[in-house]
Amino acid sequence: MTVLRTSLRNFFAHKGRMALSAVAVLLSVAFVCGTLVFTDTMNTTFDKLFNATASDVTVSAKGASDTGETTSRTGKPPVLPASVVDAVRGTKGVAEAEGTVFSTSVTVVDHDLDKLSPSSGAPTIVGNWNGNDARTMKIVSGTAPKGPDQVMVDADTVDKHHLKLGDEIGVITAVGTHHARVSGVAAFTVTNPGAAVFYLDTRTAQQILVGRTGVYTGVNVTAAPGVGDDRLKQNVTAALGAGYQVQTAKEVADANRKELGGFLDVMKYAMLGFAGIAFLVGIFLIVNTFSMLVAQRTREIGLMRAIGSSRKQVNRSVLVEALLLGVVGSALGVGAGVGIAVGLMKLMGAMGMHLSTADLTVAWTTPALGLLLGVVVTVLAAYLPARRAGKISPMAALREAGAPADARAGAVRALIGLVLSGAGGWSLRLAATADQAKDGSAWLGLGVVLTLVGLIAVGPLLAAGLVRVLGALLLRVFGPVGRMAERNALRNPRRTGATGAALMIGLALVACLSVVGSSMVASATDELDRSVGADFIVQAGDGAKPLTPAMVKAIRDTPGLTNVSRLKEVPAELTLPDGGVHKQSLYATDPAYPKDVRRTTLSGRQSDVYGRDAMSVGSDFAGKYGVKVGDTLKVAFEDGRAARLRVVAVTSDDTAIDKGKMYTAITTAGRYIPADRMPLDLGVLAGNGGDEQQVYAALRKAVAADPSVSVMDRADYKKDLREQIGQLLNMVYGLLALAIVVAVLGVVNTLALSVVERTREIGLMRALGLSRRQLRRMIRLESVVIALFGALLGLGLGMGWGATAQKLLALEGMKVLDVPWPTITGVFVGSAFVGLLAALVPAFRAARMNVLNAIATD
């Protein structure tokens, strides 16, 4: 009880000094809990949706996915005949069977040709209005569609795009473009995570999505009373045979959860990774806080030891303070985490993904994990200062001599740091010289960990040298005030090293990702200039969605184009020379394609691919399976017949564009794949034969009817690439901001405690004539030099990581190393401002000290 009372007294006596450490714990725990609550809420939302929308048993056409997704390379969904509905309806245990037809391979536009698709990445769904949908949606305005000129729209899409009854919309599919007017509005009775849904009458949906009537994409089956889903599935499967996919409601829901779970897991673990970085940075803050508090209480600890307190009691007293800090910070962090989750839900709502706070899910494991992490991290961080406090002898403490083993411990720490840094540097060298990306990645990961830990350990030694260099370059111009700031930063190299290390971690990651991102852009643009001969690139969306036949025809009819090269992905199964089987997509192209995308040919001639029954292979495939020019491979096309294709060329895979692709002619694929199963074009490359600006404008006008189709010249493509990588990096920088904020709190806390530690010294300097303005400047300069010290370590380390990562990317074709010096310089200069910001409050408090009281401080 005595230890507890002592700890409580010390904790509340230094509550102001503990506050910033508590904030660091709070932020880290809040980010962890917020991530878990947010992802759990998303799971709950989608689980409700999947359970509500799935019928007891679903029958799908062969080729449909487990989730009921109906997109395909032909742009049309796989279908089953209407007779299947009648067969299912007559099956034992079936109460009702209803045919459905829907597709997500669509683009919907309003009268002004603006897309009505969600901005969140959720699907656009067009289908027939059926009884299963009526269970989860309620018509709130108008009527359901009753003819080809009517369409019903979900209420969220109507509100977002300001639609009203009678407005005309266009549905663009592989079959063509269908125009209809809004006849009704239906609202979800469950949470809609953001999909845009459009309903047509059944006959119209069949015609515009499939191109013919009398077919469906699936059958929704309702079980008769007392019949379980599993039994119903067995009955339906027995009635239909093996040519169809039959699933229970649970199986469909589980498949949807599995597909969604991959995305949610990536997001969750990425965000938890950044929270872990914030925890790591927070450790330095806590270590510094308790180290300085122990140093300031040296005489108090000596008195405690002198009157009978044991080392264990002193140690325990400090750890109990850490426990209190961890509990308070973690408890507040759990509450803040729920607030972060609600904020993320609101943000997703603004982006189009609607998540209801009614579904807010806080599992008991979330606060338990948050409290556990916060408390454990805090106590572990305080262990070394607590152990150091327990080792101080009573007489040394009463003399304020500190721990006698500090110098020896510092030397051992520096030696360990140098060894780890050297080992990490060697690992990075091995990664940079690796022949295989997989092997190099392991060395890179090891090198990152070793160099990071090594520099943290050797930080005090580096601080003694780098701070002097920074002082000579930046602080000496401020005269005596600058020299005092430099000496203050050098007074305790361990403290300066730990404070700078906290900032180093976040900035190292920023620098690494900046180098990698800039190198990827530079490599891709260089490869584009070397390998792409086409003047224009046309694709739908991000290139994953195929172009409709109408769009391809409009492109080919555009005046001023010298050539048009189409690209189709054709899944196939290859029989290798040794008899093995290998699944690999072939890319069917036009004869002009080798001019539009230049691949180095190692043997044979690429132009021979466009002869009869010919193909090319990539060098990696050829080397792995022993394939060479002149070999004949059996190629079984997924949607057609088997062919025997002769290998006429081996192309180099030492490229980032079309790496690993095998080519054949579109005419060759057409001989073995029926026309109605031939994949649509993934993209079109075109050459300019006239005034570039005029042809560019004409090409954009030709595809204007479908806003999902983009036309890019080479400059547009490079700009789009920079923007995509820039957006990704900005998102990562935003997440890393949490760690940098915690590091800034560490600088503030270090300065604040340092000011308290130097109270008498500050009073003496003020008595000798140091003005308040000079005092504030001294503390600001000390803060700036500590921040710049951390920035130098972080940026140098991060650029080393980034350069090594680029060497590995070079094995995948990204061969250009590009250091974004404007970004690196901006971050370095920004670190100085971070130092100034961190010093505002400590400098203000120091300047307000009463001189006489400060001198009298014991």
TrEMBL record:
Principal subcellular localisation of the protein: membrane
Positions of transmembrane segments: 269-295, 318-344, 364-386, 407-428, 448-475, 496-516, 731-756, 781-803, 823-844
All copies of domain ABC3 transporter permease C-terminal, residue ranges: 274-394, 735-850
Keyword ATP-binding: no
Keyword vocabulary terms for this entry: Cell membrane, Membrane, Transmembrane, Transmembrane helix
Compartments it resides in: Cell membrane
Membrane topology: Multi-pass membrane protein
Family matches, as InterPro entries: ABC3_permease_C, MacB_PCD, Macrolide_Exporter_MacB
Segments forming domain MacB-like periplasmic core: 19-238, 499-701
Family per similarity comment: Belongs to the ABC-4 integral membrane protein family.
UniProt protein name: FtsX-like permease family protein
